[in-house]
Amino acid sequence: MVAAASLLDARGILSGMRTLAENFGVVDLDAQFAAAEKTLGFSITKDLVPALGNEVALIVNSIRMSGGIPQVDAALAVSVADDQRMKTVLLALESERAQGEAMNLGRDDVPTLWELAAALYRHAGKKEKFISINATLARAAVRVLSRLGLSPLEPQHLEIALRDYVFDNSKAKEILGWNPSRDDIEAAREAYDWYVAHATS
Question: CA 134: distance to chain centroid?
Answer without folding.
Answer: 32
